[in-house]
Amino acid sequence: MKVAIASDHGGIRIREEIKKLMDEMGIEYTDFGCECETSVDYPDYALPVAQKVASGEFDRGILICGTGIGMSIAANKVKGIRCALVHDVFSAKATREHNDSNILAMGERVIGPGLAREIAKVWLTTSFEGGRHEKRIQKISAYENEQ
Ligand code: RB5
């Protein structure tokens, strides 16, 4: 699995924690920034990561900002992206099993690095259940294709 990860200035510490986790898990990833502690704009990081996942260049994406909200809104504008904003372990599992989410968004001003790590671990290791959930995702794809 290849993961694209990025954050704005509000998510740097959790991004570093998740990179450490992926190193430990032997998961291949590329860090798309941001590089600095100065204020940046989350769409400049969410959209490239979302495009790389939508194109198939990367299998999954992880985006962190202050709340996770801006990142998830921006990523979900990209066709084919199912970005889930998650701040609990139950939802991390459910969004993989039911929604086949391909991007995980989290907010560093909402949760700490320990919980973010547990969420990412579950999200990275849980498979899509398919079955009845498949047709629901297809309905979203059909809507996207009509636009
Ligand atoms: C940046 O101040 C903050 O707005 C951003 O990190 C994020 O929370 C936006 O949704």
TrEMBL record:
InterPro entries: RpiB, RpiB_LacA_LacB, RpiB_LacA_LacB_sf, SPI_LacAB/RpiB. Its EC number is 5.3.1.6. Keywords: Isomerase. It holds the Pfam family LacAB_rpiB. The active site is at residues 65, 98. Gene3D superfamilies: Sugar-phosphate isomerase, RpiB/LacA/LacB. It is an enzyme of class 5 (isomerase). Signal peptide: none annotated. GO terms for biological process: carbohydrate metabolic process. The keyword Ubl conjugation does not apply. GO terms for molecular function: ribose-5-phosphate isomerase activity. D-ribulose 5-phosphate binds at residues 8-9, 66-70, 99, 109, 132, 136. NCBIfam families: PRK05571.1 (NF004051), rpiB (TIGR01120), rpiB_lacA_lacB (TIGR00689). Belongs to the LacAB/RpiB family. This is Ribose 5-phosphate isomerase B. It comes from Anoxybacillus mongoliensis.
